[in-house]
Amino acid sequence: MTGRRNLLLLTLVALTFATAIGSLLLGPVDLPLAGIAAALGGHGDKVTDIILFDLRLPRTLLAIIVGAMLGLAGAALQGYLRNPLAEPSVLGTSNAAALGAVAAIYFGLAELHPLVLPILSITTACLSLGLLFALAGRSESPLTLILAGIAVATLAGAGISLSLNLSPNPFAAMEIMTWLMGSLENRSFGHVWIALPCVAAGMALLLWNGRALDALTLGEDGAQALGVDLRRTRLRLLFGTAIGVGGAVAVAGSIGFVGLIVPHLLRPFTDRSPSAILLPSAIGGAALLLLADLAVRVIATSSELKLGVVTAFLGVPVFLLHLMRERRLW
């Protein structure tokens, strides 16, 4: 099984690398591979340098960072909650992070400094964690966490709807809606440095839980009998999700379904244990978001498609396939 897992990881890394090269080459203005090589070597022309370093390279790096975080978070939550439809939005993290960003836009705070929006987004994601703990109490039951997460997500969603309802003008509402649909357009290296520390910390905390997630397949009592500290596992999982997803949402907006799609696509190629799917889901999430972001650039439309719209369309077939599979068991 180790050889099979290594082959899967190697294939995913190769796919991610190839897609990243395509992301640098393709767009409204295609760049030749020789031109990119010259620019990376410091000998490119001015136009190529601007397109590569100011537009495409930050966008490509962010697609890798954000996609990896969302894919890993989805795999970790599906393992912990033993729910095949779990993703970061299940715990309300995505909605809470989006609420912070919407508040920054609504009150005009985002205009004060580029860091205000991501800081508020990450802060509200962490505050949602405190509310989640308060609602779930001392219960270690996944069902309790899911119900508490639904309550947090609903509350955050209501706050977003309220801001849209009370927007002082249609332009403010349009700006909020555009951000909520998710995009990597017009991102810079500043956004990369904002997201990278949060995502790195979040991924480290989630990957730490591999052994505990495997033990939880036996249930809470079985995991405790194997020496797993359920409270610490939950803390690492929730903090990792809140910090990592908060940082991802802060720079990319609301991008759903990546955490749902990737683990389902990759699970048949593993031994189906929760730990075996964590790292492949991170790499697969990066590849999927790179492909989706490349699609929004090369599809001919009057205005660029939003990334969240594309990933939502990708998520629908996964829901339908899971529904048809479950129906055969009813």
Structural overview:
With 330 residues, this protein is mainly alpha-helical. It has one domain (2-327): ABC transporter involved in vitamin B12 uptake, BtuC, CATH 1.10.3470. The protein is built from 14 helices and no strands. The two termini are 32 Å apart. The mean pLDDT is 85.
Report Rg: 20 Å
Write down the secondary-structure element order: HHHHHHHHHHHHHH
Provide the structure class: mainly alpha
Number of continuous helical runs: 14
Strand segment tally: 0
Number of domains: 1
Helix content: over 70%
Major sheet description: none
Structural topology:
Elements: H1 2-25, H2 33-40, H3 46-81, H4 93-106, H5 116-136, H6 142-165, H7 170-180, H8 189-207, H9 210-216, H10 220-225, H11 230-252, H12 258-266, H13 274-298, H14 307-327
Helix pairs in contact: 1-3, 1-13, 3-8, 3-11, 3-12, 3-13, 4-5, 4-6, 4-7, 4-11, 5-6, 5-11, 8-11, 9-13, 12-13, 12-14
Which descriptors would you attach to this protein?
single chain, 330 residues, mainly alpha, ABC transporter involved in vitamin B12 uptake, BtuC, 14 helices, 75% helix, globular
